[in-house]
Amino acid sequence: MAKVYEMLWDCKFCGQQKLLAKTHRTCTQCGAAQDPSWRYFPSDADKVAVQNHTFKGKDQLCPACDSVNPAGNTFCIRCGAPMEGAETAQTVPSRSKGAGENFETQNLKALQQAQKELEQLREQAQRKRMGLQRSDPTVHVQRFIRQPVNRKTLAIAGVGLGSMIGLASLPVWLLSLSVPITVEVTGHTWQRNIAIESYQSRSGSDWDDSLPSGAYNVSCSRKQRSTNRIADGETCSTRQVDQGDGTFREENYCTTDYREEPVYGDYCTYRTNAWEHSRWVTTRGNGLADTPRWPTVNAQTCASIQLGCERQGRRKETYRLQLRDPESGDVYQCDRNQTEWQTTPTSTQFQLKIGRFLGGARCKTLERLS
Q1: Which of 179, 323, 340, 346 is deepest in the core (most CB within 10 A)?
Q2: Count of CB atoms within 10 A of residue 114's CB?
Q3: How far is CA 243 from CA 22, 57, 71, in A?
Q4: Is 155 exposed, middle or buried (0-12, 13-18, 19+ CB in 10 A)?
Q5: Which of 283, 315, 313, 314 is nearest to 190 (CA)?
Q6: How many CA atoms lie within 13 Å of 236's alpha carbon, on the beta-carbon side?
Q7: Cα within 13 Å of Cα(99), Cβ side
Q8: Given its phi and psi angles, is residue 196 left (phi above 0), alpha (psi -120 to 50 degrees) or beta?
Q9: DSSP conformation class of 164
Q10: Quick one: pLDDT at residue 171?
Q11: Closest of 125, 121, 105 to residue 113, by C-alpha
């Protein structure tokens, strides 16, 4: 169980030092009210234990006279003012020491300087955030977003925005905006492909327990494969934590130490025979009158599998509509399935969404107009 001790504080008015933060709410020499920002940790020799302490919360500062009050007070113990809206007392960052080390009296001036510098950094970060918010590119393009888009200048607008604010700084949602246009079919193209695979000898390397079946010309050598973390004792420390009510708790904690042990295995090079992609055989055509057909394949087939044999692999086919915006003259292409492609004559009109800033067809939105 953690032990509890009193924080110390110095009077900033008369210079009295090492006053007890929980016991002495006012200076014993001049009577000035305690300032929580002048609290600090004592040395081991100056620690004063607090018996049967119950933590009720951080101290509060009276809004009227800045006096330190215990958490939960309704009225100030010094001036009687209501404590509603009171700020909580500032706390000191925790500190730790290793086994066999001693805590020294904390340097109050150094602590205050560090806290001052931290506050300055926070203020700088806040000003920077405010500056970024004022220059947020989304603010400058909101008016443009709400206005109708002239499709003839759409590409120019995208380039212009990229020059002004940088496309990388545009939010993803902004780049995803689109506008609908009407396009008509001006042509049809198709392409069919058949992959040709050949049975070849290839080299590879892997751990001995992961070699493919049929591997040959195997050559292995010892090599580090991984590392094991082995528990190797523990390191114990003591930490002091300012509780904010004029006390601090002292707690012991330990972390497990580990050592690294290499794990070795056999790493092998090998050769194996396997089917691999060799080339594509392709046919293509234009127009609905040009019936799609698969290409003629000239492959070196074999009755039994041996090196150099060939076979047909996967097939793929593409059916593409050529689209044109009559208003701007811009041209787009969208792939469809074969049935829809064959039943879509030239001059058929569609509604198509394109990117608002960068153009580009969103082909999934293609919808035939009645």
Answers
A1: 323
A2: 12
A3: 11, 8, 12
A4: middle
A5: 283
A6: 6
A7: 7
A8: beta
A9: H
A10: 66
A11: 121
Please report the pLDDT score of residue 149 as a whole number: 47
Give start and end residues of each alpha helix (H) in the chain: 108-134, 137-146, 154-165, 172-175, 338-342
Question: 296-301: long-range contacts (C-beta < 8 A, 24 or more apart)?
Answer: 297/194, 297/196, 299/196, 300/198
Task: Characterise 50 by phi-psi region: left (phi > 0), alpha (psi -120 to 50), beta (else).
Answer: beta
Gyration radius of the chain over CA positions:
39
Given a cut of 70, whether residue 336 has pLDDT beyond it is yes
Element (H, E) at 281: strand 247-286
* 15-29, 66-80, 147-161, 251-265: least confident range: 147-161
Query: Does residue 358 contact residue 158 with C-beta atoms inside 8 Å?
Result: yes
CB atoms within 10 A of CB 9: 26
| Pair 343, 361: CB distance under 8 Å | no
- Contacts of residues 47-51 at CB distance under 8 Å and 24 or more positions apart, as own/partner, are 47/5, 47/6, 48/5, 48/6, 48/20, 48/23, 49/3, 49/4, 49/5, 49/6, 50/4, 50/5, 50/6, 50/22, 50/247
- Region class of 18: left (phi > 0), else alpha (psi between -120 and 50), else beta: left
| C-beta neighbour count of 215 within 10 angstroms | 16
216: its two tokens: 């040959």
Long-range contacts from 68-71, C-beta under 8 angstroms, 24+ separation: 68/25, 68/33, 68/34, 68/36, 68/246, 70/245, 71/245
How far is residue 39 CA from its own chain's centroid? 38
Q: Which residues of 218-238 are buried (b: 16+ CB within 10 A; e: fewer)?
A: eeeeeeeeeeeeeeeeeeeeb
DSSP class of 292: -
Least confident of 23-32, 174-183, 266-275: 174-183
| Inter-CA distances, 52 with 5, 40, 171, 220, Å | 11, 22, 57, 69
- Residue 333, token pair as written in the block: 């292409």
